[in-house]
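User: C-alpha cells for both sequences below?

Assistant:
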Amino acid sequence: MSNAGKVNGTILTGNGVDSGYDYEDTRSRSVHAEVDVSGNYWGSETTAFMNANPWGSLANVPRIYDFFDNVNRTAANYDNHLQSGGNAGPDLTPPAFLLSATPNLSNAVNVGVTEFILEFNEPMDNTVQPVVTFDTEFPFTELVVEPVGWTTATFPSSTWRGSFSVGIETGDGLHTMRVSGAKAADGFEIPDDTSHRFLIDTRPGTGISNGVATPLSHREMRLEWTPSLDIDVKGFQILRARSLTGVYNYVAAAPAEMTMTIDSGLDSDTT
C-alpha cells in the first residue's frame, strides 16, 4: 500500500512483495506532515518492533517507508497498532435491516383490523418506535399504522407490531409500506424501507362482508356493506357478537338489494 489517506483497522502485513515495504509514502512533507495509519495490524515481526519502539520514539520501522527513510517525505503515524489480526479487516456482518413484513403480497387485506408485524434481522432499540405508514402512491405516508409496540418474548426484541382499521374508504389496490426511524440496539438507524408491499381488496363476496359500522350514539350503530354480486342471493340475516366464536344475537333481516341498517338498543362498552 502506498500514499494512502487515513487507514485504520486493517491488516497491512504482506503488502511489500516487490519493495519489501508494507506501506510506502512518497508524498512531500510540505503537503502532508503526517498520515494516519494507526490502529492497524502489521504482522508479528513488525508488531514486535513497534511494541519496542512505539510511535513517538522516532524509530525507523523496517516495513514502512516514510519520513524516517527520507526527511522530505510524510511521516506514517502507526500509533495504537493492533497486536493481532483478529480485530482487523472489514466488518462483514450486515447492518440491521427489515427482514420481513406482514401483511404482504401472499395475504390480501380485507375490511377489518389488520395486524402489522415487522421482523428485523437483529435486536432493535426498543425505546424507539418506528413510524409505519402506507399508501398506493409515493411517498407512502398517507395512512398511519397505530403502534402496538415491541414484543416481550426476547429483550431487546426484533419484532414490532401495529394495527390499522381497514375500511372501504381506505382504498383498494397495491399499497407500499414505509418504515421510518427504526434503530438497532447497536445504535444504527435503518434507512427508510419501502420494499414491502401488500394488496387491499374489499370487493364483495357472496355474503354480507366488507361491513362498516359507524356509531350514531351510545345506543345505535349504522351498519353498511357492499351488495353481493351473486344473483342467487335473495337476502341476509345480520347477526352481532363480541367475538368470532359467538354468542351471536339477531340484528335484522335484509333483502339482497339492501346495503344499510340501524343496530339499536346497544349498551355502550358491553354490547
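Moving on to the next sequence.
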Amino acid sequence: MSAASHQGTTPYYFVPGPSRHPVLASVGLFFVILGAGQWINGHGWGAYSLLFGLLWWAFVLQQWFREAIGESEGGLYGDRVDVSFRWSMSWFIFSEVMFFAAFFGALYWARVHAVPSLGSLDNAVLWPDFKGGWPSAVPGATASPAGIVEPFYTMGPWPLPTINTALLLTSGVTLTIAHHALVAGQRSKTILWMWITVLLGITFLGVQAYEYWHAYNELNLKLSSGIYGSTFFMLTGFHGFHVFVGMLMLLFITIRLMKGHFTPERHFGFEGAAWYWHFVDVVWLGLYIVVYWM
C-alpha cells in the first residue's frame, strides 16, 4: 500500500497496492457464466459449475470487502477518497440506468413498432390470422401453429405486484428514517430501522418468487411465451436480482453498524447502499406502470 503524500495520519490520497482480488473474482465469474450457459442448455453439470462459481465469487468478494473495510476503519480514506467514492457510485448507478433503459427501450419497440408491423404483413410471413396486438398469444387471440407459443394469461397489477410496490416504497421510507437517525447519532434506532428495511427487501423477493410460481403454474406465462414472456421475465428478473444485491448491501451495512462502524460525519458506505436502494425503488415504479398496468 502506498500514498502520494501524507497529511497527519491520513494520506493525502490513499492508493492501494496491487491486489489479487480482481483476478480471483474473474475466475469465479467465469465458472458462473459457463455453468449458467450449460445449465440453460440442458447439461446437468452446469448447475455444479454455477454453484461453485457463485460460492467462489462470494468468498473473494467477502475477502475484498473485508480488506477495504479495514482500510476505511484504519483512517486511510480521507476527504479526497470520499469524493472519489461518491463519483464512482454515481457513475455506477448511471450505468445501471442505461442498462434498464435499454430493456425498457426493447419493450417499447416491441409493443409500438415490431409487433404491429408484423401484424400488417402478409400471413404467409407468419401464420394465418395472426393478430398484431399485445401480447400476441393469449386466450382469445390466435396462438402460433404447432404450439410454438402456447396461449397464456398476462400478469396484472393486482394483487402481487401492488403488494411488492407497497413493500419497496415502505422500505425507502424506513431507510430514510435510518439515515436521519445515523446523522443524529442514534445508532440503536438506526440499526432497528435498517433491520426493518432488510426484512422488507427479503419479503419483496419472497413475493416475487411466488409471483413467478403463479405465472408458470396458473397463467402458463413462461420465458418461452413469445416476446411478452421474454420481456416480462427479462425486466422483472433483472430487477429482482438488483433487489437481491441491494438487500445484501443493506444487510452488510447493518452488520457494520452493529460493530460500531460509521459516524454521523463519515458514513459513505451507508449512503452508497442507500443510493442504490432508492434507484431500485425508482426502477420498480417504472416496471409497475409499464409492465403490469399498460
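User: Anything stand out in the second?

Assistant: The chain has seven helices and four strands.
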